[in-house]
Amino acid sequence: MKALGGAEAADSTHPPPRVYKPEMPRGWWLRQRHYFLYIIREFTALPMALWLLWLLYEIQRASNGPKGYYPPSSPAFIVFSIIVLAFALYHTYTFLSLAGVIIHIKGVPSRLIVLSQFAAWLVASAVIAAVLIGFAR
Amino acid sequence: MAEKRITVRATRFDPAKDKAPRLQSYDIPFADESMVVLDALNHIKAHVDGSLSYRWSCRMGICGSCGMMINGIPKLTCNAFLRDYWPRSITVEPLNNFPIVRDLVIDMEDFMHKLKSIKPWIIRKQEYPLGAGEHRQTMDQIDEFRQFSECINCMLCYAACPVYGLNNEFLGPAATALARRYDLDSRDQGIKERLPVLANSEGVWECSFVGECSVVCPKGVDPAKAIQQTKLDTTMRFVLPYGNREE
Amino acid sequence: MDFESYDVLVVGGGLAGIRAAIAAVDANPRLKVGMVSKVYPMRSHTVSAEGGAAAVLRPEDSYETHAFDTIKGSDYLADQDVVEAFVREAPVEIIQMEHWGCPWSRDEDGKISVRPFGGMTTWRTCFAADKSGFHMLHTVFQTSLQFSQIHRHDEAFATKLLIEDSRCVGVVAIDMRSGRLEAITAKTVIIATGGLGRIYAFTTNGNICTGDGMALAYRAGVGLKDMEMVQFHPTGLPFTGILITEAVRGEGGYLLNKDGERFLKRYVPNKMELGPRDIISRAMVTEFEEGRGFDGPHGKYMHLDVRHLGEAVIDRKLPFMRELGREFVGIDIVKDPIPVRPVQHYMMGGVDADISGATPIAGLYAAGECANVGLNGGNRLGSNSLSECLVFGAAAGRAAAEYASSAGPVSTNPVDALLADETNHIESSYLDKRGGDERIGTIREEMQHDMDAGAGVFRTRDGLEGLTRRLASLRDRFERIKIEDSSRTFNTELTAALELDFMLEMAETIAFSALAREESRGAHARRDFPERDDDKYLNHTVAHRTDGAAPRLEYRNVRITNFKPQARTY
Amino acid sequence: MNHDGHAKNSRTAYTHLLWWFLFAQGGVIAAILVPIHVLVQGILGPLGIVRVVDRHYDTWIRIVGNPIVKLYLLVLIAVPFFHFAHRLRYLLVDLGVPAARSVPAQVIFYGGAVVITAVTIWVLLTTVPISFG
Ligand SMILES: Cc1cc2nc3c(=O)[nH]c(=O)nc-3n(C[C@H](O)[C@H](O)[C@H](O)COP(=O)(O)OP(=O)(O)OC[C@H]3O[C@@H](n4cnc5c(N)ncnc54)[C@H](O)[C@@H]3O)c2cc1C
Ligand code: SF4
Ligand code: F3S
Ligand code: FES
């Protein structure tokens, strides 16, 4: 092989021409709405994790006996829960919709799969609410 | 009426001269409502600046060579209409996440390797002799994989996928869609040969389901679906007692 | 010394080229096969073929009728032995494509479906919805990836054939990435570089269809056969030239003039919309001239109406047409008629090659649209071309493999000299050229408009003579072109200049060949000679390059076996 | 150029497969079960809008003592943590910490989920004795 232009012609190893390798900017996810929503979706894990840790702690506190048990009612806790609920609902919405893409059953349209997921969610929620409220005094 | 004009900014980069890409601005006539961004580039190359380099051929959205970033979104320039941008200006850049060879030309060798690695051809345990005629295949069986066979290798999905941008080793959307195209073809028996490539540590697991690949795909391939389904299938083959059996 | 050397080198990564490469490996797995393509193979223009590929697959069909349709369609300019061999091989190739995974559309029983096509007496066009070329190209390309014997040089632009002792021993090609000129040597070379629609302004062909391979062969001394035979397709979208496939008419679409009349009843009453392309294109132009066309911003047009087919049929069989209508015209073909007008589409003429693709130069073969093996004559029938690429691509691959298996090695000394020569030429005429005031784009556009005007659907002596003069002056101006791009990396201005150089020369062969054929046959319609003249012109034009302006034209008899020329009416 | 396949890395990554499987399971559990708990126990209860089991010691230990409930709580709390671990690990990658893809990071994140599972089991077994009341 021979290079166009005298200078490179002598070089028989001919390294590939230089390319410019762009870097992903750190804030790539701020540049587009979809990316931002994606990051939010992934982030929902954190608030949910914190809330479940609280629940675990709540269970553990039941061993302190009736005197040491006082359920939380601080406004801060309620605000925290409201925030967590928002994230949790976003997780539910995205996860159940996406599951419609993943699960493929021959002959069943994916819209139906998604709808049945949401139906299952509503039923489960009703049952849990009934237990949590129904067994209260 | 004064002549309608539009400003097009295009990336320029000559590896011999430039350290980094820069934008060059061109003001060109927007003469016809049916003009697409590619026509604008062609006008520049033919009449303003012959040194602008980019790829294109079919001008009908099927050869897959004219993908570029238009105002930050990966698109086929041959079916992105100027009328949708005018009077705003247009910024045309090479596809994100790829090394830039020159101006608007990206290096897509990486995909060519990945395409080959997923064995995109019919694999059979036993060759079906030519003399026996065609395999029978119903339209329903074709519908199983049709969508994934429509990929034109335009690389828009790779440009849209941040996971690929962060980690070029990731097998990525189009290659997985094409693997699935063969896996789902009733004539193919090669799923076991393809799975290890699809499901290795740089394979489908890396995808965190950003989903943008499917949003930008100009051919409705839905590579995100191909990837998630591959994850599920692979897992099921492993988890279910008889999941690993022969097809 | 360290250049690549192959047994078989294919120039072109379209359907014909890839089929040839696989056939060569099949014929002899020990061969080293190279493939040079100026674009990644899956970008080749085969990708845009829509309608389908013809082959006799049905019991009610016969080789005989396929051969007859093809020969009649060619206006008796096809070599009949070639046609007969072709119709027998085509079904084998279609089945081979199926085995390689091509998603052919199917009938209820799971067999490959067929649809009617223009000029075919029965249904025999296999299709993959209306993206047949796309699916076929991707299928062969992806299939070819499994052969480690095939080494690709993607985005390498062939500029010259290496000829040594009147044997072809490879090509010189520019590696687009590095800008280096390389000698790629081989015992045999197969040219499969496709068509040259880009010499016309209004064409269905992609940017890469610039007739490079024809020009390479021509310059190496091979004749070009029947270059006056340029096909105009009746149904291109105004402005873009995007093709609306003949399958639209095959599936039952109507062509309507501005009075809402199916005007073809005056031209091809028995076939109507399923008449051959040359006749329908002429009918449309005649209607335009007589004032029965629609007037639009991009010239006159007709309506192609599929509304009566219904959404279900359209979505199953013509989904891409709906997509094209929506994206490029802003109409929904389910609800609106499609505006169409005749558009340059295909080149019947090409590199003089025999039934196995062999050219008069030893070791040099040609296949696909760039070749003229004698199949298409004066007018190609729709859907014969994709089958031709398969049948004659495979034939050329096998023939080259056989030649390569016995041929001696290529000696290197003359190759070095030839490469140095070509490098020198490209540097002094283009890259290091100073001055110049002519824009490549301007010359190209003028050539394209001159070709549309002078060598279009109808031709006259005056028009063609004027065309040869204008082309000569464009050639002079080409000497003074200005090259603004001095970069070695992906210099598309350099390749555009080389392509323009090729195209100007091919345009001249078309103009001169057309001027000399003083009759009307197939796609070549002379207003001054409206009749076919079998006494004088039942022969092929073969244009040879000379040092002067005009090529030397030679005539060769058409080979006739079973089908005597008859009047061609539909 | 010739394109030789990815020879280096063509084995199914079973660990990734397992992580993904657990991630998906955890995702479903979190999606279906978490919001109502947050709503009832975190908002409606504390606001006093409805009465909820965990607001009184006796109702709370009675229900937490139930073995089926214990099992349920294990699923509710432990399984989502495999989902969280996965997402948070990739979130770090997305935000520019490629090290989160490494094996040590996997050990930390999924190991964390395993630890939380163990803690949950321990809490459920030690807090309120199992009773069928
Ligand atoms: C819109 C459209 C629709 C069509 N529909 C049909 C149909 O329905 N049925 C049918 O039978 N036919 C159809 N045709 C015709 C048919 O598609 C073509 O004739 C056929 O695909 C040509 O294939 P090919 O392999 O010869 O060339 P192409 O596919 O054009 O390939 C040419 C190859 O040569 C390479 N090349 C060219 N020049 C150089 C160079 N200088 N150096 C290196 N490489 C080079 C290119 O990179 C490319 O890989 C259609 C054509 C068009 C344009
Ligand atoms: S999947 Fe879609 S976006 Fe990606 S390469 Fe294929 S066609 Fe282009
Ligand atoms: S954008 Fe990327 S992360 Fe997955 S869903 Fe698509 S490949
Ligand atoms: S030019 Fe072919 S896809 Fe745009």
Distance between the termini of chain A: 89 Å
Q: Count of DSSP E strands of chain A?
A: 0
Number of separate helices of chain D: 4
Describe the sheet with the most strands of chain A. Answer: none
Beta-strand proportion of chain A: under 5%
CATH C-level name of chain D: Mainly Alpha
Provide the low-confidence segments of chain D as ranges: 1-7
SS-derived structural category of chain D = mainly alpha
Count of DSSP-assigned helices of chain A:
6
Q: Based on helices, strands and strand pairing, what is the structural class of chain A?
A: mainly alpha
Number of separate strands of chain D = 0
Biggest sheet architecture of chain D: none
- Please give the alpha-carbon distance between the first and last residues of chain D: 75 Å
What is the CA-atom radius of gyration of chain A, in angstroms?
A: 27 Å
Sum up the overall morphology of chain D in one term: elongated
Helix content bin of chain D = over 70%
Order of helices and strands of chain D: HHHH
Q: Oligomeric form of this entry?
A: heterotetramer
List the SSEs and their pairings:
The complex is a heterotetramer of chains A (137), B (247), C (570) and D (133).
Chain B: E1 5-12, E2 22-29, H1 37-48, E3 67-70, E4 73-76, E5 90-93, E6 100-102, E7 105-106, H2 109-117, H3 139-145, H4 156-160, H5 162-166, H6 173-183, H7 191-198, H8 212-216, H9 223-239
Parallel strand pairs in B: 1-5
Antiparallel strand pairs in B: 1-2, 3-4, 3-5, 6-7
Helix pairs in contact in B: 6-9
Chain C: E1 5-11, H1 15-27, E2 33-37, E3 53-54, H2 63-73, H3 80-99, E4 114-115, E5 125-126, H4 132-144, E6 150-154, E7 156-164, E8 167-175, E9 181-191, H5 212-219, E10 224-225, E11 230-236, H6 247-250, E12 254-256, H7 277-289, E13 294-296, E14 299-305, H8 311-317, H9 319-329, E15 338-347, E16 350-352, E17 364-366, E18 371-372, H10 384-406, H11 413-431, H12 440-454, E19 458-459, H13 461-478, H14 492-516, E20 525-526, H15 534-537, E21 539-544, E22 552-557
Parallel strand pairs in C: 1-2, 1-9, 2-6, 9-17, 16-18, 19-20
Antiparallel strand pairs in C: 3-5, 4-5, 7-8, 8-9, 10-16, 10-21, 11-15, 12-14, 13-14, 14-15, 21-22
Helix pairs in contact in C: 1-4, 1-10, 2-3, 3-10, 5-14, 8-9, 12-13, 12-14, 13-14
Chain D: H1 14-47, H2 57-65, H3 67-94, H4 103-126
FE3-S4 cluster (F3S) is lined by residues 160-161, 163, 173, 207-213, 224, 227 of chain B.
